[in-house]
Every structure is written in structure tokens, then in C-alpha cells.
Design goal:
Blueprint (H helix, E strand, L loop, with lengths): L2 H33 L4 E16 L4 E15 L11 H4 L13 H30 L1 E2 L9 E2 L4 H7 L11 E11 L18 E5 L10 H4 L21 H11 L10 E10 L23 E2 L11 H4 L5 H4 L9 E2 L3 E2 L3 H26 L10 H13 L2 H18 L8 H14 L5 H24 L4
Antiparallel strand pairs: 1-2, 3-10, 4-9, 5-6, 5-7, 7-8
Helix pairs in contact: 1-3, 1-10, 1-11, 3-9, 3-11, 3-12, 9-11, 10-11
Length: about 450
């Protein structure tokens, strides 16, 4: 599929998902309004000109051309009735208008849409985790998914203690050195015999491998450089591991005329909880703490580096400055459907909190956590092609976004309407219409500016 067609398909798919979630949001308002005996003129799917209308006894159900919104129109003295229903308004009792129904009912009507978005996110996330037994690509879990074409995977694979490379083998530390190129050596020469040895980075504690010549050269390691203490019986999260590489792979004292080598220290952990497991056949180098040290990456001639890197197999056995080690977020596995369901509740609220923080950053002019339309199109397409579980989790994420967005107390969002009703409850009188109009205009202009900026941020 051409790139331009992928973008269009992704945008259309994203709009469909968003429209479904918004429609369910408005359905929440509609159902609670009906339960509270409010008079609902219209339930609209979409905005703009009508496509068709189904006229009920009281409520008209309308489909409109613009698939980017919807609304639930409830009778009120503050708003004109829909065109063609002016005479009908005269027969609506005040008790069924939004202005006169009990305030506690107003709260429930306003919160109905927010609640539906929360329940949809909860239902999809808990059901999918329980059914599949896994949450994919979880930065807060242990281990990593290893790229078979990169050095970390292949050094782990070459270790006799590793039966099959998977995310149970967790990197505990790593070391990078440089030496003058030696055409007769495939591995680095002991530093006792090569004075050119330079340690570019190390966070493997020398106390873990007391007889290792290269670690003897290492100085004490500041705690901020450690991935994990070598004595620890539990893995740290992937997030901590990957940022240890991100923050330290840009070496300051690289000599491009020397050969670079890398190796890793690792442990095997439980698939479900990250607890260290014993390695017995063959035994770990550090048997007491089940810590294994891989071989070094292979030697190469730095003068021919650019030519060598043209071979796709080069990064499997060699490491050069600027290379990545090839790790990606692991999958979180659940022992049972019940464990997956329970974690789904926790994860829904954790994700909602992360979304709330991303929205909060917008007010400090940090829009990094907000996806542009092109990013949304890409995410929609990727999740659609990844399979039903990924796609429905994406719908859950959009629903959680709408849930959090509507908690913000800025008009025209539901959060402001809740705040407005609460203030009126406290002061025991209605806020003036002039003030409501002023606040609404300011809020709409603010969101319009944010919306325009988000649309064009890819071009800035």
C-alpha cells in the first residue's frame, strides 16, 4: 500500500474509532437523561447536515455527515429547540427541562458520558488481558524482547547457560571497551598484555567477577549508572534498563581508529514476577548470585567499518559506536485469567493517570504527549494490522483519553459543567448567563488554539 494511502486509511480508521467512542459517550448522557425523565429532543451521531432521521415518539435519532462528534439535545429554557420543534416546546413540562430537574440528577446526566468511557476502557482492557493472558510491550515489566539481528540477542544466545533467548534473561549490567585493532585476535586481549585498553563504560560490579581482568581496571560505579545491584534477587523494569542504555551509549572519549567491544551480565528470572531463578546447568559464573557474563563481541578492523556495516549480519556479532544493542519492551504475562483481569483494573487507572499528566503538560506548552493527526493515523493503522486484541486495546486507550479529557474543568467539557453545577449548589443560585457565555467562549477559543497547534505540530 502506498504511503499516502496508508495515511488516508489510518485517518479514516482513526475517525471511525473516535466516532464510536464519542457516540458511546453521548449514549451515556442519553440513557441517564431518560432514566431521570429529562426530555431529550435529539440524539445525534456526527455533526453537520443530516443524512437521515428516525423520528421516535419523543426523541429523534439523527445521523449526520461529519464523523467527528455528536450530541444529546435536552430541553432547556436557555437553548432554542431544534428547527421544526418550536411548537412542541410549549407542551414540555418544566419538570422535564434541564433547568428545573433536581440538581443531583443533573450531576448524573453530565457524568453519564464520562462513566461510559471509563467503563468501556475497563471492560475492554480487563477482558483482553484475561482472555489473552498477556499485555504486550510493557515498559514497566521485566526483561526485554531481543532483536535477533542485534548484539544483545546473539551474545546471550552464545552463552551456554541460555537454553533459548527470551525475556526471562534480563540484562543486569554491561561493559564497553576499546583496544587497538589486532588482526590475530577475534576477542579483546587481556589488558595486562594490551596497554591500549580503554573502558568507555562499565556498570558491572567488579566484586561480582573478582578474577576478570577487565573489571579489575574498573573504578567504583556510581549508583546512578547501575541497572541493578549484582546481589539483587529481583529484576528492575525494562524502562530503567533501556534508559540506562539511552543515557550512556553516547560515549565521550570514542576513538574511531580503535576496535570497540561490548559484553553483558545477566540473570534468569521468573516469567511472571521477575524473581531471580537459579541457573544450574552449566552453573553461572557467579554461582552465589546466579549472575552470568557473556563473551565479548567480535573484533573488527575499524578502518573498514563502513564497508563492514553494509553486511546486515555485522551487527549480530560486532558492536561499533553508535550501534543499538537491540532490546524492545517485554510482554507482561499473567498466571491466570483472574490475574489478567485484576491487573486490567490497575492498568486502566495507571494509563488514565499518564494521560492526565500528558494533558497537564499542555498548559506548560509541552505538547510531546499529545498525538498529532498523522501520529494518530499511524497508530490506528499499526493497531488494526496487529490483530483484534491490539485494535480493541487501542479503542480502550481512546476511550480512556476521552474519559480523562472530560474531567478537565474547562468549557465545553463535561468537567466544567460538573464544576459549574457544584458552584451553583454551594452558592444556592444560578451563575449569571453573561458569565457562562464569557467562560464558554474563552474555553472554546483555548481548545480551538490547542487543536490547531496539534494538527500542525508535525510541520513545526
Amino acid at each position: 500500500m502506498p504511503a499516502w494511502l496508508e495515511i488516508i486509511f489510518g485517518l479514516v480508521l482513526g475517525l471511525i474509532v473516535l466516532q464510536i467512542v464519542i457516540t458511546l459517550h453521548e449514549l451515556g448522557h442519553f440513557l441517564i437523561a431518560k432514566i431521570c425523565k429529562a426530555y431529550v429532543y435529539e440524539f445525534s451521531v456526527g455533526l453537520g447536515p443530516k443524512i437521515f432521521t428516525i423520528k421516535g415518539k419523543e426523541t429523534w435519532f439523527t445521523m449526520r455527515w461529519i464523523p467527528f462528534g455528536g450530541y444529546c439535545s435536552i430541553a432547556s429554557d436557555r437553548a432554542d429547540p431544534p428547527v421544526g420543534r418550536e411548537e412542541e416546546e410549549k407542551n414540555i413540562p418544566d419538570a422535564r427541562k434541564m433547568d428545573y430537574i433536581a440538581r443531583w440528577k443533573r450531576f448524573f446526566i453530565i457524568l453519564g458520558g464520562i462513566a461510559v468511557n471509563l467503563f468501556l476502557a475497563l471492560f475492554l482492557i480487563t477482558t483482553i488481558y484475561a482472555a489473552t493472558g498477556v499485555k504486550k510491550n510493557d515498559m514497566q515489566f521485566y526483561g526485554a524482547n531481543y532483536d535477533e539481528n542485534k548484539i544483545a540477542y546473539n551474545l546471550l544466545k552464545s552463552s551456554p547457560q541460555v537454553e533459548e533467548v527470551n525475556q526471562q534473561y534480563v540484562i543486569w549490567g554491561w561493559q564497553v571497551i576499546q583496544q587497538n585493532y589486532n588482526a590475530d585476535a577475534t576477542q579483546p586481549v587481556s589488558p595486562e598484555n594490551d596497554e591500549s585498553t580503554v573502558i568507555l563504560f562499565n556498570n558491572i560490579d567488579r566484586a561480582a567477577f573478582e578474577n576478570d581482568d577487565f573489571l579489575k581496571l574498573s573504578s567504583d560505579i556510581p549508583s546512578k549508572l547501575l541497572i541493578n545491584d549484582f546481589k539483587s534477587n529481583h529484576a528492575v523494569t525494562y524502562e530503567k534498563t533501556v534508559y540506562n542504555f539511552v543515557n550512556n551509549l553516547n560515549f565521550k572519549d570514542v576513538n574511531n581508529e580503535s576496535t570497540t567491544y561490548i559484553r553483558f551480565a545477566f540473570k534468569k528470572v521468573d516469567r511472571y514476577n521477575g524473581a531471580v531463578q537459579q541457573i544450574s546447568s552449566p552453573k553461572a559464573v557467579n554461582e552465589e548470585h546466579n549472575l552470568v557474563l557473556t563473551d565479548w563481541s567480535e573484533s573488527y578492523d575499524p578502518a573498514k567499518l563502513k564497508e563492514l556495516q553494509l553486511d546486515s549480519n555485522f551487527s549480530k556479532s560486532h558492536f561499533a559506536p553508535g550501534d543499538s544493542v537491540g532490546i524492545a519492551p517485554p510482554n507482561r504475562y499473567f498466571k491466570s485469567a483472574g490475574a489478567g483481569y485484576a491487573f486490567g483494573w490497575q492498568d486502566t487507572f495507571v494509563q488514565s493517570w499518564q494521560i492526565m499528566k500528558a494533558f497537564g503538560k499542555m498548559f506548560t506548552f509541552d505538547f510531546s504527549g499529545v498525538a498529532s493527526p498523522f501520529q494518530t493515523a499511524n497508530q490506528s493503522l499499526l493497531n488494526f494490522t496487529a490483530g483484534p486484541a491490539s485494535f480493541f486495546l487501542y479503542i480502550a486507550f481512546i476511550s480512556a483519553n476521552l474519559f480523562v479529557l472530560n474531567l478537565i474543568p474547562i468549557p465545553p467539557l463535561d468537567g466544567y459543567r460538573v464544576l459549574e453545577n457544584f458552584i451553583e449548589l454551594c452558592i444556592r443560585r444560578e451563575i449569571s448567563d453573561k458569565f457562562k457565555i464569557l467562560i464558554s467562549v474563552i474555553g472554546i477559543l483555548l481548545f480551538l488554539m490547542i487543536f490547531i497547534f496539534v494538527i500542525f505540530k508535525d510541520f513545526l
